[in-house]
Amino acid sequence: MTRYVIAFTAAAALTAIAAVPAFPQVVIYDGEPSDPYSVDGNTESNFLDSWNRHHDDQNRWFGQQSSFGPGDVITLLEGRGYRVRNVQDVGKRYLVKATRGGDNLLVSVSRSGDIMGVVHDQR
């Protein structure tokens, strides 16, 4: 009887773990509409803008003002092996042109010092 209880518990636990929902990754396509059913073709970028606004509003609400500047961005990325070429303030984030391992990269860094994304620079 004990074996059946243990086997049933293990099966239930494995089923619960396997049933955890997977969330889709947001992908922004460059130069083509990403969602053929959307009105303006900017579904993902609109989502990311609203997500950024929501989290920036939360930081203002809780009084978490960030003093993370361009110099801090350079220090952060160089400490992680990037060679920084240019830091551009784009409002809610810093957009950084950098290289690492011979690859030209665009790195997005938040005002709180989090690396939000890294993509290959095609230019």
TrEMBL record:
Swiss-Prot/TrEMBL keywords: Plasmid, Signal
Signal peptide: 1-18
Protein name, entry field: PepSY domain-containing protein
